[in-house]
Specification:
The protein has 743 residues and is α/β, with parallel strands linked by helices. It is built from 21 helices and 36 strands. The protein has seven domains: 59 residues, Arc Repressor Mutant, subunit A (Orthogonal Bundle); 42 residues, no CATH class; 63 residues, Orthogonal Bundle (Arc Repressor Mutant, subunit A), CATH 1.10.10; 166 residues, Rossmann fold; 102 residues, Translation factors (Elongation Factor Tu (Ef-tu), domain 3); 111 residues, 3-Layer(aba) Sandwich (Rossmann fold); 93 residues, Translation factors (Elongation Factor Tu (Ef-tu), domain 3). Bound molecules: guanosine-5'-triphosphate.
Length: 743
Amino acid sequence: MSKIRVYDLAKELNIPSKELVDMLNALDIPAKNHMSALTEQQVKYFKNHRSEQSSIISKSPVEAPSVKETNNNKTVSSQNSTIANTSTKNSTNIQRSNTTATTTKPVVGSNNNKNINNKADTKRPYTNKPRVTPVKIDNSKKEKKSKSDYKKRKTDETKVEDNILLPSQLTVGDLASKINVSATEIIKHLMKLGIMATINQDIDFDTAEVVASELEISVVLEDVEEEVSSILEQFEEEDEKDLIPRPPVITVMGHVDHGKTSLLDAIRKTKVTAKEAGGITQHIGAYTVKINNGAITFIDTPGHEAFTAMRHRGASVTDIAILVVAADDGVMPQTVEALNHAKAAGVPIIVAINKMDVANANPDKVKQGLTEHSLIPEDWGGETICVPVSAHTGEGLDTLLEMIILVSEMQELKANPNRLAKGTVIEAQLDKGRGAVATLLISTGTLKVGDIVVSGTTYGKVRAMNNDKGKKLKNAGPSAPVEILGLSEVPEAGDEFYVVKDDKTARQISEKRKHYVKDQQVKKTAPLTLDDLFNQINEGTVKDINIIIKADGQGSVEALKQSLIRLTNDEVRVNVIHDGVGGITESDVMLAAASNGLIIGFNVRPGANSIKTAEKEKVDIRLYRVIYNAIEDVEAAMKGMLDPEYKEVVMGTAEVRQTFKVPNLGMIAGSYVTDGKIARSYDVRVIRDGIVITEGSISSLKRFKDDAREVAKGYECGIGIDKFNDLKEGDLIEAFTMEEIPR
Ligand SMILES: Nc1nc2c(ncn2[C@@H]2O[C@H](COP(=O)(O)OP(=O)(O)OP(=O)(O)O)[C@@H](O)[C@H]2O)c(=O)[nH]1
C-alpha cells in the first residue's frame, strides 16, 4: 500500500503542513512532521472526518447532525443510475434510461428533513442510546468518543434481545412489522413530526427511532460494519518501531500481446522454479520471487481489468504497476488504458519495454509514446523508470527486479509481522475434496495455521496453509501469498480478510454480516452522477470530478478534455482520468466505478455488456453528439442547474445481416431483431464498432414483402433509414424514443 507524505497531503488540501500535523495528531493519527508517511486508510479517515466536519459546519453551526445522516444522504444519491443522452438535444437536456425511471426516491429524515432531526435532538429522552453519536467539532475528542461509544455498544449488545434491531434505512411498512405496530399508527406519528409518508416510503434510522420512542419501544441500529471497523481500527494503530520493511506487491499491465504473461512466466521460471529445489510451481494467484536484497510478490493475473476490479472492491493490494510495452509495437490503446488505471489508483509505474530481442525493436518510439501520456522516461529528464527487457532471452529481467526493489524502498513499504494477520483475498474456489480454497495476500501481521479468519460473511480456522510452491507452511508474514483451507464458504476475491481472537467472535461477525448483506448491498456504492453532482459538491463528498472521455476521433477527445478541465474551480477539480478513441468498454465502466467517476461519450456508444455493467455498478454514462452540450451539462451539473426534461428509452436493437439496394427505397438492411422491438415510428441510430454513424428515422420497415408496423425480437425484417444509404453488414440499428420525465 503506498504511503502519502504529510506535505503532499497538505499541498493537496491547501493547508500548512504544520497545521495538518496538528489536525492529524488530534485524531490520534501519528505524524511527526511534514515528512511523516501516512497510510491510505489514515488519509481516507482524515479526509472523511474533515468532510464530515465541513458539512456539519455548513449545515448548522449549532446543532450537529449524527454521522449517519451523512451516510444516508449518500444512500439517496446512489439510487440514481442513468445513462443519459443529449444526442438530439437543442436547448433541453435529454436523458436516456434503458428501462428504469430516473427519479430519485426521497428518503424521509435525511438532510431535507433537518427540522425533524433537530426536534429529535432537543426533546428525545433516548439520546444516551449507543448509536446516536453527535459529532463534536472538537477534533481531539472524536476518536476517543467513538471508541468509548463502541464499548458502550458492546455492553448493550448483551441486551440486544430487549432492543429491536433496525437497519439504517427502512420503509414505513417494514418498521411497522419489525416493531409490531400498525403502519397507520406509524404514519400518524410521522405526521405529528411533520412527515407525510406512505407505507412504502423509506425513512432513516433516526426518524424510526423517534417514532419508536414515542411508542415506548426501544430500537438499536444494526450496524455490524461499525463493530468490524473497530476491530480493524486496531490494525491502524501501528507503532513505527514495530514496522519492518515488507516485499512490494506488483501487478503487470499492458496492451494485449505485449508479453505480460510471458514476462510473468519468465520471472517465475528464472527466479522460482530453478532455485527452489523440487519446487512444483502452483498457480495460486500470486507468487513471491526472492532476489539478493529482498523479495517481490507478483499478482499472477495480468491486466488492468483484474486490478481495477479489485480496486473497485476496495482492495488496493498493488504497490507498483509494471507497464509492459512491446518495443516493436509501441504505446497502444490498452497501454494508455492501463497507465490511466494505475494513475487513477495512485500506484507508481515502472515501464518494461519488452521484446527487445526482435529485429525492429525501437525503445525510443516507446518512450516517445509514453511522453505523450505524461510518463517522461528518466533518461529523457523525467521520473519514469523504463527497463528494456526480453521475456524470451531474459535480458533486463534482473534490472527490472532491482528497479522494483528501488521504487519499493522509496515507498517505505512496511508492516508489523508481530500481530494478527490482515490482508486481501486474491482468489478463491470450491474444491471438491478440500472445500473452500482461498489465496490470501497478507498485508500485515503473521498468519498461522490454527488462526481464525473472517472474510465477508465467511469464517473458519486455517486448517492448512501452502505457499505458491506448494510447500506446507505453519506461518506466513506480510506480503506473502498463501493458499489456505478451512473457511466455511468460498470468500469473494477482493474482500478483506482478518484474523480474530476466537471462533465465537468470528461466528458473530459472520452471522451479523449475513444478516446485513442485503442492506449493505443497497448501501454499497454512491457513484458520481451528473444529476446529483451539485448535492455531492455541497456535501463536500465530491472534491474531484473524475471523468472518462470516449469519442470517435482524437480531435474530439482533445477538445472535450481541454474544455472540461477548464471547468475546474475553487471547490472542485475536474480530472480526465482516462480518454480514448472508440466505443465505451466494460473496462471504462469498471474504471469509472472504481474511481467514482462518470463517462462522457461523444459520437460513440457503450456495448451491451458495458450497459449492463454500468447499470449494475450505477455508473453514469452520458452520450453526446455536440461537444458544447457535454461541456454545458457538466457545467450546469456543477452549479446544480441540470434539469433533465426528457429521457431516451432504447426500444430495441437489430443486427444488419445483409444489405441490398431497392429501387425507390434506397439501401435496405436485411436485419435480425436481437433485442426489444423495432417499430416504424421509432427513431434509429446506426452503430458500427461502437461508433454512431448516423441518426434518423425509419423510412421503411418490412416483413418479407409486407409493410410492418413493428417487428419483435427474434424476427427478421428489412429496414430502410431515411436519407441514409451507407448501411453495412454487422452494423447495429438501435431504435429509441424520447419520453418526457414528469417533473
Ligand atoms: N520475441 C519476443 N516475443 C515475445 C516476448 N514476450 C512475449 N512475446 C510473444 O508475444 C506474444 C504475446 O505474449 P503474451 O505473453 O501472451 O502477451 P500478453 O500481453 O500476456 O497477452 P494477453 O494475455 O493476450 O493480453 C507471444 O507470442 C509471445 O511469445 C519477447 O520478449 N520477445
